[in-house]
Design brief:
Blueprint: E1 2-3, H1 24-33, H2 38-50, H3 64-71, E2 80-86, E3 92-97, E4 103-111, E5 114-118, E6 122-124, E7 139-142, H4 145-160, E8 172-175, H5 185-196, E9 208-212, H6 216-222, E10 230-234, H7 240-246, H8 254-268, E11 272-278, H9 286-296, E12 301-307, H10 322-334, E13 338-341, H11 355-365
Parallel strand pairs: 5-8, 8-9, 9-10, 10-11, 11-12, 12-13
Antiparallel strand pairs: 1-2, 2-3, 3-4, 4-5, 6-7
């Protein structure tokens, strides 16, 4: 099922800063500038981040004069939901429209009592993996901290509007949507601080996983943060030649990437996950399993196998059969690796990352 848009947010001139990306100190300063008191700043934070207020009228215990003064200085959200796709299994994709007209994707993935949100960090992606829709049109820009946080606020609003059948409380966050998160740490890290605030959204570091295509220097910078986020590395192959075929922009070697991941584990004590998108006849062979075993043996990590989802505009690649995936997983296990297999989610609804955005962009130009 596709709907045109979610509940509307208040709109404001594009040059106004979005409150959703501000720290508590910045919000307190803004409220003071507008004539408010410190306790009213805390009330405002609670309305926006705990209750998901999307317009000023929703902040009912703030005086109208203060709301009007604040509305002249900031907007609660800088983005809106342009479309919602819901798959039969409950996987929900949001197309989020940004203030400058660009769009990104956010995905809600239900799994038993877990409700995981996948967020984007860039408009498009510079990595250009040969199997991925995200980078087909390159990267347009980095997201701002507010635009990262707002993906969570929008998702909670949409889920809450669906009634009691779907819980509105997100349990996990994965930073695995459009873009390379490590290339936007200046916005991502403040956004994660806001997301982790226990008085607001309240998703702690142990419920958050940040992905990377394998940028060792950025991974080491990420390891310097005070929080122990989980790390997922998109590896895809255990040898450099094959990995560079799959990730043409790759500069680091497999050994350098694994070394940076080991350093992250040593500093944070959090198990690292290595993501492998499996392509039939490309990286699902016996020798591919052997090279991964050689690269990762002795590292307390998990290998997550992801059978490829077909992508519009990408030809010549095939999804491996379930039997082939299971055989590959078993080879890795026999080699001493811990392995999980991601089963297909939302297949009939542009499941591959970036597909919904491309589909709507194509429709807009027809």
């Amino acid at each position: 099922m596709t709907r045109a848009a979610g509940p509307a947010a208040e709109t404001a001139p594009r040059d106004l800063p979005a409150l959703s990306g501000m720290s508590g100190d910045a919000i307190a300063g803004l409220v003071a500038e507008a004539g408010g008191k410190p306790f009213q700043a805390r009330q405002l934070e609670h309305w926006v981040f705990a209750h998901g207020a999307a317009d000023w009228d929703a902040c009912r215990n703030l005086p109208r004069a203060l709301r009007e003064a604040l509305a002249a200085r900031t907007t609660l959200r800088s983005s809106t939901v342009a479309a919602v796709d819901v798959a039969r299994d409950g996987t929900t994709k949001l197309l989020v429209r940004l203030a400058d007209g660009e769009s990104i994707e956010t995905v809600v993935i239900p799994d038993g009592d877990r409700l995981t949100l996948c967020v984007s960090t860039q408009v498009g992606c510079p990595v250009a993996c040969v199997f991925c829709a995200s980078g087909l049109d390159g990267v347009r820009r980095n997201l701002r901290a507010a635009e990262i946080v707002e993906q969570i606020l929008h998702a909670r609003t949409i889920l809450g509007s669906k009634g009691d059948a779907t819980p509105a409380r997100l349990t996990n966050l994965v930073v695995m949507g459009l873009g390379e998160p490590m290339l936007n740490l200046d916005a991502l890290l403040p956004a994660l601080e806001r997301i982790g605030d226990p008085d607001g959204i309240g998703l702690g570091a142990r419920r958050i996983t940040v992905s990377t295509s394998g940028l060792p220097e950025r991974m080491r910078r990420f390891a310097q943060t005070p929080h122990a986020y989980s790390l997922a590395v998109s590896l895809h192959a255990g040898v450099d030649a094959l990995r560079r075929r799959l990730v043409p922009t790759a500069r680091a070697t497999v050994a350098e990437i694994v070394a940076a991941a080991r350093a992250y584990f040593a500093r944070k004590g959090r198990e690292v996950t290595f993501e492998i998108v499996l392509l039939a006849g490309v990286n699902d062979r016996a020798q591919d399993a052997s090279s991964l075993i050689s690269a990762l043996r002795g590292f307390p990590s998990t290998v997550n196998l992801i059978p490829w989802n077909p992508v519009d505009r990408i030809e010549g690649l095939r999804r491996p059969s379930e039997a082939r995936v299971d055989e590959f997983a078993e080879r890795l296990r026999r080699g001493g690796l811990n392995v999980t297999v991601r089963r297909q989610r939302g297949a009939e609804k542009s499941a591959a990352c970036g597909q919904l955005r491309l589909r709507h962009a194509s429709a807009a130009t027809d």
